[in-house]
Amino acid sequence: MDLPELRVQVANYLDKPQLAAASVVCRSWNESFIPALYSEIQWCHEVNAPKKDTLLKYGKHARILFINDGFHELSVEAFTKLEALRVRTFKINNEMWEQLSNLLIQNQGLVEISISIEHSEEPITLPADTMRHIMSYPSLRNLDLRSFNFDIGSTEQLLDACLHLQQLSLLSTGLAQLHSLERWEQFPVMRSLSLSHSNNLTLQQQLRLIKKCPQLRSLSWSRDSGETFSVPDFCKALSDDCVLIDNLKLEGWSLSDECIGKIIDSSTRLTSILLPCSNFGMNAFKSCSRYLSTLTRLDVHICPNFTSAMSQQILTSCPLLRDFDACTLDARDILGITEERQATGEGGTESLQTRSTTTREWVCLNLRSLSVFICGLDGRYPARQQQVLQQLARLEKLEYLSIGTDNSSDFESIGGLVLRLDAGLDILKSLKRLEKFVFLGLCPEMEENEVHWMLSEWTELRNLGGLLNSLDCRRIELQEILFSSGSMRSIYYRQVRLEEVPPIHN
């Protein structure tokens, strides 16, 4: 560690507390670790924000600045070498626009700019000066703007900038309707494009915009469900113009299962398929079959035609899967159990016959995120619960796990997992990397023993979602136990009849 070059390399593998500790060892260590400690700064004036003197002294080391909820008391003059600027705020005024413009002027080497106005009732018009600064940077590669309106001049400036942009995201952002897009022949380096329903370009203009991106790898396209969609034109764009797309997200389109299948068939190299709230069914699933060996992400939540058997086939056929979000997964499918009812005897009495086949074990052992309601556990066969938990326990790299349901029609999810130690919860002790655990709707709710067990076994756990106890006084006690650990960031839960309760922050 005597070599400065070695210390700089080591700094890349340390977290903030470790960097802070290393920087006070001696002067030479301070010079090596301080730049890494302040390379990324998150500013929120109410929560753990660096002091003004600290920013003025070390802001020159910042390469990434994330401003959360306003510029209040932020010393913008401290930052002169930013590469990424991310702004998230709930309101913006003239003073904040001026501070933002100053930041843009001071940091001519910006590669990434993200500005989001959260929960804005109406899109906001970007000031001309700010827009000019944003679009003038030759170094700019990634641009993310949310909840803004563009006039014709700003829209044309944006499309001019697309000649060197690699990533563009326009969510809840309205562009001006242009007479023609012929002025722009191609956007040759665009690799990621996100378009939402609120921009004012016609569908055909948006499709022409997509077709002008021959290097496109990722496309996210959402519209209002009532709008028409030319499936043949879009399929032709995928097969002829944008053949490199491997990440496809379509949301809000009124597409049949057959049309979704045609769109997937028109693609040649999909590894990520995100089609939430759609009619994704058997046709689309068959079209996906050729991608099972390479699929890394699949989002089909709130897709009523996506069955439990399909979920089980995904989990047993996709070795590279990292993120999976679906509706249901029945314990009988997990364990290879079929049940048939047959009429016997003179009175036609029904009997239940159970047949078992060989259980197919999940192969997606590198899964990082799993969201699916595991059902079919009605208490008659307690051994099934433990067998299901043993399958879950094999997913040792999980960071996010949701096994409840957000069904608005019923408070309790009948047949879900029982999260009690006496029902085998401790089988999941192998999930050491778990950071967020969601169990909305599961009953009976967890008690103190389970809370202590989670804190002991899941040391990375930071967020919980679910009902700890239906009694208000008892729930508060359990929350205090969780927060007393010092690691829990938030807990959210649902009361009877799905009454919403805001997140509780430490």
TrEMBL record:
It comes from the Eukaryota. InterPro entries: LRR_dom_sf. This is F-box domain-containing protein. It comes from Entomortierella chlamydospora.
